[in-house]
Structures are given as C-alpha cells and as structure tokens.
C-alpha cells in the first residue's frame, strides 16, 4: 500500500494557506485518485464529508483551523515514517 508522503501533504497545506480554492480542489481530486487506500488522507481531503469540502463550502475560520491542524499532524507523522519505521513500503529491503 502506497501512502502519501509529507511532500504531497505539504503541497495541500500550501494550497490551503494560499487560499487558492481552485488549486486545492484540483490537488484533492488528484491525490484522492492517486492514494485510494490512504485512509488518513482520504478522511481529510476526499468526499463530501471531508474537512476540505466542509471548508470550501463554509469558509469558516474554525473549519480552516481544524483542517490545518489535521494536515500538520498528518505531515508530522508522514515525515517520521519516511525517515524510518515499520510502515515504509520498502521496509523488506532493510536487513
């Protein structure tokens, strides 16, 4: 199973912080298709019940903070996972 890297999540964070809703929607569509088994990412950015969709529809500051918080937490987790750990997709190559 391939998970979105912290670079992918950073790209989404940049779109959120730039307040570019068109780019945010494009990135979400692209990454939802690319990482269909990444449940953490799917919950944040994919579907009508996602936090991104809630923010795009409401544009409320509270929802924006919830979205940023979720993205930053996921970014931290993925950065740690990419520097080592058990969830790496290539962990079998390490002896």
Number of strands: 0
Strand content: under 5%
Biggest sheet architecture: none
Q: What is the straight-line distance between the termini?
A: 20 Å
Along the chain, the helix and strand elements come as HHHHH
Estimate the global geometry from the Cα principal axes: globular
Task: Count the DSSP helices.
Answer: 5
Number of domains: 1
Low-confidence stretches: none
Radius of gyration: 14 Å
Mean pLDDT, to the nearest integer, reads: 88
Helix content range of the residues, please? 55-70%
Entry keywords:
globular, 67% helix, 95 residues, mainly alpha
Q: Which helices and strands, and how do they pair?
A:
Layout: H1 6-18, H2 21-34, H3 39-45, H4 51-58, H5 61-82
Helix pairs in contact: 1-2, 1-5, 4-5
């Amino acid at each position: 199973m391939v998970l979105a890297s912290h670079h992918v999540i950073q790209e989404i964070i940049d779109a959120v912080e730039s307040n570019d809703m068109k780019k945010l929607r494009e990135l979400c569509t692209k990454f939802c298709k690319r990482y269909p088994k990444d449940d953490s990412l799917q919950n944040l950015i994919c579907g009508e019940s996602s936090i991104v969709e809630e923010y795009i529809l409401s544009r409320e500051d509270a929802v924006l903070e919830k979205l940023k918080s979720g993205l930053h937490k996921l970014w931290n987790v993925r950065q740690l996972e990419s520097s080592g750990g058990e969830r790496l997709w290539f962990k079998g190559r390490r002896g």
